[in-house]
């Protein structure tokens, strides 16, 4: 039970994010929802590579040979960078939409979702 | 150390490097920048032709990033590095992607001349090509995710190119929300597969997949995410906005990238092959729904690009219908299944050409009149060439002989008829409705009293690329067997024999 907590956290994070994307009308909250889904997925990747009692996978100065898996960490790093780019681009769209319409409520216009 | 050995990685590297060279050279001279971009695109096209020729003659070619010998895929019995894998199927798709980008770039040289931020526009164009080619050629799941994100970020930025219009921003935001949620679901599915098999290579996972519950969840996520990127029916809502608001040449590229997502979908589908009959039926029914919804929504549109976008949904329905009903017969599609799949793949090529031509004509109409709606009238008096091109595109899209749409749609109809006659009948009705819609558009734009306002002249290069598209439509329509035998049949064989794809890696 206890070691399942990270996976439960992943599910909760993804659910919160999807709720934000699907049901919130404020565009910034939609962007936040996407960022939260991204964090959930990143946590999932990190959790996949975790080994009980493992050290950081730096081969040259590791105290022992039991390491956490390096591949998921590399994947997570890449995915964090991509997420930053995506969120930055979306926030810049939100800024421009705000400048153009004077509001960021999605219900008031054609844009839905 | 020959060129052909390194062609797969060069296909991705050349547009990527050229993308970041473009703004630097653009600082010096804009003519030089255009020259550099065209050189990069022409060399990509050349490499794609070379690679396709080699792959169709000599079989699958793999490229291992970072290995001493590019062909050395799995030194320890399982693949550890990122591997690019090219068979006849993805060579065909990469050929389409690079040719259509070259055509669009030449069209843009004059179409976009007045815009200010051309350096960034061309950078994004080349990045979009990088994303498309990477998505096509890669054999590694995480790589797939990275290229998917490159594709969505650059296409979202291109959709929002007319920043001063609020609708373009909204369309770009919508596209970005949908595609980033889709991409995160892809990443989640990759995590699920990695957690079970400790592998990221597509072929290696396909070799050891068990079909457990988690596998099915992962596969469902992957398939729905790529259907979302392709814009099939339940998740089509981003498509008309994005295609309608982007600059017309960009819409052509968006269309191509949607078709590439479809290719990835088919690839995942065939190499994993869990429960293919059920999934094939689901795809066929989604295809029929796409056709129905696409044509019925196109009927009521008043904006030309939006109308073509809805007919793009319908055209994509034909591809899904063809390949889906072929996959119902999956483990060994021989009779109608083979025809259905090759018809579907043939339609990928024809779809790009037909709708590409129509989008470029819509762009040209916008260029000369500054209008996006259908209330123009009488353009045929002053622009007879454009009217002829439109007639060719119209005939091809609605599947009239002697154009290329007829050849592929006939293959789809006759093979789908064996699966279920009703599906074929709905497909044919969709085509007839499509013809009706475009006849209406033709009379609204080109017929009637001559257009009275001042018209700009269409530059020769724009007319030339539209002419190339129109000529290839007629050529493929007149000699479909030539194309079928040389490209489509090898591609279909590569797609339906996933064993070769898997064994080339292991």
Helices and strands, with pairings:
The complex is a heterodimer of chains A (113) and B (506).
Chain A: H1 5-23, H2 27-48, H3 70-101
Chain B: H1 7-28, H2 30-58, E1 61-64, E2 83-86, H3 88-111, H4 118-137, H5 141-159, H6 166-197, H7 202-208, H8 213-230, H9 238-245, H10 248-272, H11 276-298, H12 304-327, H13 336-369, H14 379-382, H15 384-397, H16 404-419, H17 421-445, H18 460-478, H19 480-496, H20 498-503
Antiparallel strand pairs in B: 1-2
Helix pairs in contact in B: 1-2, 1-4, 2-3, 3-4, 3-10, 3-13, 3-18, 3-19, 4-5, 4-10, 5-6, 5-10, 6-8, 6-9, 8-10, 9-10, 9-12, 10-12, 10-13, 11-12, 11-17, 12-13, 12-16, 12-17, 13-15, 13-16, 13-18, 13-19, 15-17, 15-18, 16-17, 16-18, 18-19
Features:
heterodimer; A: 113 residues; mainly alpha; 3 helices; B: 506 residues; 20 helices; 2 strands
Oligomer: heterodimer
Rg from Cα of chain B: 22 Å
Work out the largest interface and the residue count of each chain.
A-B, 32 and 30 residues
Global geometry of chain B: globular
In round numbers, the mean pLDDT of chain B is 89
**Helix content percent band of chain B:** over 70%
H-E string of chain B: HHEEHHHHHHHHHHHHHHHHHH
Largest sheet of chain A: none
Give start-end ranges of low-pLDDT stretches of chain B.
none
General shape of chain A: elongated
Report the structural category of chain A: mainly alpha
- Our count of helices of chain A gives 3
Count of separate DSSP helical elements of chain B: 20
Instruction: Estimate the mean pLDDT confidence of chain A.
Output: 86
Strand content of chain B: under 5%
Low-confidence sequence ranges of chain A: none
* Helical proportion of chain A, percent range: 55-70%
**Order of SSEs of chain A:** HHH
Residue share in β-strands of chain A? under 5%
Structural class label of chain B: mainly alpha
């Amino acid at each position: 039970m206890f070691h399942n907590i990270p996976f439960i956290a992943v599910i909760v994070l993804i659910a919160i994010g999807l709720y934000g994307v699907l049901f919130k009308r404020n565009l910034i909250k939609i962007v936040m929802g996407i960022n939260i889904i991204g964090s959930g997925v990143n946590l999932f990747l990190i959790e996949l590579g975790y080994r009980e009692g493992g050290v950081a996978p730096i081969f040259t100065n590791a105290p022992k040979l039991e390491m956490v898996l390096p591949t998921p960490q590399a994947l997570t790093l890449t995915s964090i960078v991509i997420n930053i780019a995506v969120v930055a681009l979306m926030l810049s769209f939100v800024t421009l939409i705000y400048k153009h319409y004077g509001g960021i409520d999605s219900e008031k216009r054609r844009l839905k979702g | 150390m020959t060129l052909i050995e390194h062609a797969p990685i060069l296909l991705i590297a050349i547009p990527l490097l050229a993308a970041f060279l473009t703004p630097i050279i653009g600082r010096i001279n804009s003519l030089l920048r255009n020259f550099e971009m065209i050189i990069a695109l022409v060399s990509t096209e050349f490499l794609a032709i070379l690679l396709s020729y080699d792959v169709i003659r000599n079989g699958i070619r793999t490229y291992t990033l970072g290995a001493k010998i590019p062909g050395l895929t799995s030194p320890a019995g399982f693949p550890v590095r990122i591997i690019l894998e090219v068979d006849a199927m993805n060579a065909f798709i990469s050929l389409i992607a690079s040719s259509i980008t070259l055509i669009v770039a030449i069209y843009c040289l004059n179409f976009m001349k007045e815009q200010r931020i051309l350096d960034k526009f061309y950078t994004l164009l080349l990045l979009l090509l990088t994303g498309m080619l990477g998505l096509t050629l890669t054999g590694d799941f995480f790589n797939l995710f990275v290229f998917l994100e490159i594709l969505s970020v650059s296409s979202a930025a291109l959709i929002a190119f007319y920043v001063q219009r609020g609708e373009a921003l909204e369309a770009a935001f919508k596209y970005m929300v949908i595609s980033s949620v889709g991409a995160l679901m892809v990443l989640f599915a990759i995590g699920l597969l990695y957690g079970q098999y400790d592998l990221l290579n597509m072929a290696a996972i396909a070799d050891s997949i068990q079909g457990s519950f988690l596998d099915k969840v992962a596969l469902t996520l992957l398939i729905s995410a790529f259907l979302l990127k392709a814009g099939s029916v339940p998740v089509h809502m981003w498509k008309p906005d994005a295609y309608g608001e982007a600059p017309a040449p960009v819409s052509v590229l968006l269309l191509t990238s949607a078709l590439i997502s479809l290719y990835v979908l088919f690839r995942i589908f065939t190499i994993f092959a869990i429960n293919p009959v059920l999934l094939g039926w689901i795809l066929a029914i989604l295809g029929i729904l796409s056709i129905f919804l696409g044509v019925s929504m196109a009927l009521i549109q008043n904006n030309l690009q939006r109308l073509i976008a809805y007919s793009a949904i319908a055209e994509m329905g034909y591809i899904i219908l063809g390949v889906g009903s072929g996959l119902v017969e999956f483990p060994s599609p021989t009779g109608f299944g083979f025809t259905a799949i090759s018809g579907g793949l043939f339609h990928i090529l024809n779809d790009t050409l037909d709708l590409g031509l129509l989008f470029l004509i819509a762009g040209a109409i916008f260029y000369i009149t500054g209008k996006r709606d259908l209330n123009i009238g009488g353009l045929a008096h002053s622009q007879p060439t454009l009217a002829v091109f439109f007639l060719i595109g119209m005939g091809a899209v609605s599947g009239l002989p002697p154009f290329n749409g007829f050849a592929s749609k006939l293959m789809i109809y006759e093979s789908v008829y064996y699966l279920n006659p009703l599906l074929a009948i709905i497909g044919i009705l969709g085509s007839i409705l499509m013809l009706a819609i475009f006849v209406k558009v033709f009379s609204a734009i080109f017929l009637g009293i001559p257009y009275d306002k001042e018209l700009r002249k269409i530059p020769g290069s724009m007319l030339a690329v539209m002419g190339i598209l129109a000529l290839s439509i007629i050529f493929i329509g007149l000699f479909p067997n030539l194309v079928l035998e040389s490209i489509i049949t090898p591609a279909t064989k590569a797609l339906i024999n996933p064993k070769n794809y898997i064994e080339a890696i292991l």
